[in-house]
Amino acid sequence: MKVCIFGGGAIGGYLAAHLARAGLCEVSVVARGKTLDALQAHGLTVRTASDTFTVRVHATSDARELGQQDYVFVTLKAHQVDSALEQMAPLIGPHTAVLPPTTGIPYYFFHSLQGRFNERQLPELDRDGRQWRAIPPNQVLGCVYWIGAHVSAPGVIEQDGAKAGCPVGELDGSDSARVRALSALLSDSGIPSKVNGDIRSAIWVKFVNSLCFNPVAVLTQGTLGAMADATGVLPVVKAMMSEADAVAAQLGLAIGPSPDKRIALTVSAAHHKMSMLQDLEAGRSLELDPLIRSIRAVSDLATVATPTIDMVLAMAQLRAIVATHANNPQEQYA
Fold it and tell me: Which Gene3D superfamilies match (predicted)?
C-alpha cells in the first residue's frame, strides 16, 4: 500500500511519522524548504505526553518521483491547495483515494448529499471548478483531524493533549473496502480512526470548531485553557456555533453533539494554541479567507444570517492586517 502525505506541517508530519513507525505501508512526504531539509537529514520526530520517537521517511519536493498512490493525504492549508494541484497530479491515478483538507467547507461537500443541494458546486471555494476536476469527488474520502499538534522545529512535531484521532468516511455513507482499509491502517499505526457513516456532518463539526475558536484565539491570543478561564469568551464561541448549526439545519445536516459538549471537548486541551494563533505568532499568513468564504457560501445557500460570526471574523481580519503591517512595515493598510 502506497500512502503519500502532501505537506510536512504539524498534521502531515504527525501522520507520516506514525505510518512510518508502524511499517505497514510505503509512506512518503512531499515537502519543501527547511522542512524538506530536516526530513531528509534527520527524519521526523514526534513528541507526545507519553512518548517521543524519530523515524526516517522518504521526503521529496517532486511528486513525480513517487508515482501514483493508493491514498494521498493533502495536509496543506486550504488556501494552498489550488496552486498545488498540478504538483500533486502525478500522485493521483484512477483508483487513488484522496483526502483533501477540511479546515473550511471542502469543494466536494455536496457530492452524494441527499436533497436539493446534491452535487452543488461552490465556485466561491473552488475557482472555475479546478479542484472538482483535478480530484474528482468520487475519489475523495472525508477525514477529520482531531489532532492537536504544532511544529516546534522543522521536522519536529509536538502533540498537544493526550488524545488524537481522525475518523474517515465515504461521502455517500457506504462501508467501502477502501475506507475500511484506511481506517485499519491508521488505527494499527497508532492513530485511532473509526469509519464514520456520516462524515459530512463530522466535517461540518470540525469546520465550525475552527470557524469559532481560531478567530477568537487570534483576537485574544489565549490558549484554549485561557479562553475557558476568561469571563465571557466561551459564550461568544457558543453563539457562533449556534448560528453555524442553524445553517447546517437548513442544509439538511444532522449535527449530533451540542455546542456545550463540543466546546468542553475542545478546551480540554488547555495548553493548546489554535493553529491560527500559532501562525500569527510565527508571522505567517492566517487561514481566515477559507473560513470566511466557506460560511458565506453556505449561509447564502441556506438563507440564514450569522451576525456574531460576521462580527468576530471582521475583527479577526483587521487583526491579520495589523499583524501583516507590523511584520512588513513597508506595506500599507488596505
Answer: N-(1-d-carboxylethyl)-l-norvaline Dehydrogenase, domain 2, NAD(P)-binding Rossmann-like Domain
Cell of 251: 442544509
- DSSP label at 172? T
pLDDT per position as a tens digit, 229-266 = 999 999 999 999 999 999 999 999 988 889 999 999 89
Known active-site residue 261: no
CATH number of 199-327: 1.10.1040.10
What's the gap between Cα 160 and its chain centre? 16
Residue with cell 506595506: 331
For the domain made up of 2-188, give the CATH fold.
Rossmann fold (3.40.50)
pLDDT, position 329: 56
Residue of 163, 206, 238, 261 with catalytic role: 206
- CA pair distance 83, 130, nearest whole angstrom: 10
- pTM metric for this prediction: 0.89
CB-CB contact of 92 with 139 (8 Å): yes
Average predicted confidence (pLDDT) for the chain: 93
Q: How far apart are CA 272 and CA 299, in angstroms?
A: 29
Domain segments of the chain as ranges: 2-188, 199-327
Q: How far apart are CA 174 and CA 101, in angstroms?
A: 21
DSSP state of 140: B
Q: How far is CA 176 from CA 25, 108, 173, 182, in A?
A: 19, 18, 9, 10
